[in-house]
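Reading is simple: each integer encodes one residue's backbone shape. An example follows:

___
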Amino acid sequence: MANTLRKTSRSLHLWLSLVIFIPVIIVIGSGLLLQVKKEFDWIQPPTQRAPNAYPTLSFERILQSASTVAEANIVTWEDIDRLDVRPNKGIIKVRGKNHWEIQLDAQSGDVLQVAYRRTDTIEAIHDGSWFFEGAKLWLFLPAAILLFVLWVTGLVMLFTTLKSKYRKRHYRIN
């Protein structure tokens, strides 16, 4: 029984690992980049600090300041993906839909930094949504489930191997 279980686990382990190889490599690679995103400015621009901490800018002034940055190509609110207000650092991050990030002084509206932000793209690659509609649900989720099955079959192989070695050692002693 244990021998059959070990052979079945080994075979299942081999074929499932071949099936999910590419999605798992993509998840691991992008996950590693996301783990170190704060360490590399190329991935995520560092958050600046402004001398005054409390935001007083109006939405109109935020849009006006953001529209002065040519790279971001912001003209209307439709061009903005989100605002990230950091009162303790005195800044407002304006993220354009084209992934450019503008960091503004939360009181004066001065542009403190302009940089391309790659974390959103890396996150989309990580969860599969970057590739095509449905990849997240129909490719990366099944790969994650199969990865769990690989983990279980690996444990079965480990357990049956250790059990077999224990029996062999135990019978040699007796």
